[in-house]
Design brief:
Residues 280-357 form the ACT domain. This protein is α/β, with parallel strands linked by helices. It has twelve helices and 15 strands. It has four domains: 23-89, Chorismate mutase (Chorismate Mutase Domain, subunit A, Up-down Bundle), CATH 1.20.59; 93-173 and 260-265, 3-Layer(aba) Sandwich (D-Maltodextrin-Binding Protein, domain 2); 176-236, D-Maltodextrin-Binding Protein, domain 2; 271-357, Alpha-Beta Plaits. Strands 1, 2, 3, 4, 5 and 11 form a six-stranded mixed sheet that branches. The two termini are 39 Å apart.
């Protein structure tokens, strides 16, 4: 290619960039108009509309035919555009399990984009509390891992909260061993969240079997401690390594290459139907013969697919359990309505935790 051809192409790129910028500005001005219309109708409108954002991203994927850019790249770009335009309307606050550098924070940015204010919390319980008392409009918490199952702290918090799940996020998890030193043999203890220890169990047993393992509230907290304590390492991601100025001693130490954590978005709003939804329920499990069979039969009877079921101690009576269930469909769909009515004849507690758009996969 000649220098002349290259110059022409660069001129064309500059022209396209000018058009893109003008269109983004036009979109932001339309977002301001939307805000004016909403404030004219109600005093405290919601500007995070998960059903609308899910629809936009599905349209992006649908339009992406024969593109050189993969769906993931284009949805990331549009997510950031939506985030910037949402901030023109109102700068929303999102709580997450802190400190900075956690996978929870990464999940927040993946879902909401970067044009938000984040509120780090010390524990998962604190994330719920920040949203409940109004210090944050939304919260993001891990709910299950593809290899280790449910996150018990999160499930237990749903028993008493009035918050609703209004979105979900899938985040691939790649763990690293981080430390101030580059000499792995000098490490005497490792900090990590207990789920991360479980996800890296085989690697740790094979490579660092005699090193003390200490569980902390988050992997970012583990990285923070490792940055201040000699002879200490942490299990965390590359983002935490950058924030806390740590060396990556070993990368991808998770035992399963497809290790993924599912996060949910907490809020006070109910999400409208999108046509591609998921509903989460909390059910009591009567301690009598056939109770689980009859509960599951309510979904079979109404031809509803169940994507998850998990039991937890009720904390009311010894050896008494409750169930957390995910099903396909929205609480406003007739089959789901009918299933809820059937469940109410079988058990004392049927709590709707939220209906929300299914994550794009």
């Amino acid at each position: 290619m000649s220098k002349l051809d290259l110059a022409v192409i660069r001129t064309q790129i500059d022209e396209v960039d000018t058009q893109i910028q003008a269109l983004i500005t036009q979109r932001a001005n339309l977002a301001k108009d939307v805000a004016k219309a909403k404030y004219a109708e109600e005093s405290q409108p919601n500007f995070y509309r998960p059903e609308r954002e899910a629809e936009i991203l599905r349209q992006v994927i649908s339009r992406n035919q024969n593109s050189v850019l993969p769906n993931e790249t284009l949805t990331f770009i549009f997510q950031e555009i939506m985030s910037a335009c949402r901030a023109v309307q109102k700068n929303i606050m999102v709580a997450f399990l802190g400190p900075a550098g956690t996978y929870s924070q990464t999940a927040v940015f993946k879902h909401f984009g970067h044009a938000i204010q984040t509120v780090p919390a010390q524990t998962i319980e604190d994330v719920f509390r920040e949203v409940e008392v109004g210090n944050a409009e939304y919260g993001v918490v891990p709910i299950e891992n593809s290899t280790e199952g449910g996150v018990n702290q999160t499930l237990d918090c749903f028993v008493n909260t009035s918050l609703k799940i209004c979105g979900e996020i899938d985040l691939p998890i790649h763990h690293c061993l981080l430390a101030m030193t580059q000499d792995r043999s000098s490490i005497t203890r490792i900090y990590a969240h207990q789920q991360s220890f479980a996800q890296c169990r085989a690697w740790l047993n094979a490579n660092m079997p005699n090193v003390e393992r200490i569980a902390v509230n988050s992997n970012a907290e583990a990285a923070r401690r490792a940055s201040n304590e000699a002879g200490t390492a942490a299990i965390a991601g590359e983002t935490a390594a950058e924030i806390y100025h740590l060396h990556v001693l070993s990368a991808h130490i998770e035992d399963h290459v497809h290790n993924t954590t599912r996060f949910v978005v907490l809020g006070k709003q109910n999400t409208p139907v999108t046509g591609n939804d998921k509903t989460s329920l909390y059910l009591s499990l009567p301690n009598k013969m056939g109770s689980l069979y009859h509960l599951l039969g309510c979904f079979v009877k109404n031809t509803i697919n169940m994507s998850k079921i998990e039991s937890r101690p009720s904390r009311q009576t010894a050896w008494d359990y409750v169930l957390f269930v995910d099903i396909e469909g929205h609480i406003q769909d007739e089959p789901v309505k009918n299933a809820i009515q059937d469940l109410q004849t079988q058990t004392a507690i049927v709590k709707h935790l939220g209906s929300y758009p299914r994550v794009l996969r």
